[in-house]
Amino acid sequence: MPGLDGNLIRQRLADATLYLCTPNRPDLAEFADAALAGGVDIIQLRDKSLEAKQEIAALEVLAEACAAHGKLLAVNDRADIAYAVRADVLHLGQDDLPVSCARHVVGEEVVIGRSTHDVDQMQAAATQHGVDYFCTGPCWPTPTKPGRPAPGLDLVRATKGVRRPWFAIGGIDLQNLHEVKAAGATRVVVVRAITDAEDPKAAAESFKVELSS
Ligand SMILES: Cc1ncc(COP(=O)(O)OP(=O)(O)O)c(N)n1
Ligand SMILES: Cc1nc(C(=O)O)sc1CCOP(=O)(O)O
Ligand SMILES: [Mg+2]
User: Fold this and answer.
1) Distance (Å, whole) CA 110 – CA 194
2) The CATH number of the domain where 176 resides is what?
3) Which residues are noted in the entry as Mg(2+)-binding (predicted)?
């Protein structure tokens, strides 16, 4: 079955402000439904513990939730799995598959994103052929990505005004979101702020309210 049309995916990306990465969890379907109902625009399965078969099974759960809410499904690292589940988005870090290689696997419709951690990487991702969006971070050191040094909000400030869609990431929560916005970000990626929330729908709603003001 073909995935969404690339123009529609890129339109949804342009409109997206809240991107959630989640590990697999026993209540994945209910959790995803709540987060998407609260306003999450893109949901990525980020779980390094899964074998391909289990990752595909979890992504199929997320795909159903994304289709029901008209939102985007993202795969982390694996172009083959993105292809297998007809994902809308493939996210690649600096040490992952080269973009040109991933593009051959997933085709032209799928949106490809990149992680960046310094100004040189950010400027490269802002112009590199085949890249549709990028992320800058971590804004703060985060236990979700142990050992990754944080360039902090200076990198967000350096990215302000770049036209290609970009998201701030790393250590962002409802308490410090105003600092991220003041540094120039209009889009954010979060993990714990929603995955650890008692009420994921309410957490997502609060992010969306703050991001739209
Ligand atoms: C949306 C988004 N942004 C950044 C990352 C981090 O990617 P990477 O640096 O490859 O690290 P891992 O997540 O693979 O550990 C991401 N996954 N998603
Ligand atoms: C997965 C990931 N990538 C980062 C980067 O800077 O590229 S920071 C990060 C983890 C973000 O998790 P939390 O919202 O729980 O701090
Ligand atoms: Mg990666």
Assistant:
1) 25
2) 3.20.20.70
3) 77, 96
